[in-house]
Amino acid sequence: MYTLLQKNRENRDLGSFLLKQIDKYLQPLLLTLDYQIDKRLVRTFFDVFVSILRFRNRSFGLVLSELGTYVLNPKHAPAGTKRVSNLLRSKKWTSAQIESFQLSKAKQRVESLSNQGKEVLFLWDDSVVEKAESWYSEGLCSVASSKGKRLTKIKTGFNSPPKARICVPGFDWSAVVILPRGHCLVFA
Question: pTM of the full predicted structure?
Answer without folding.
Answer: 0.67
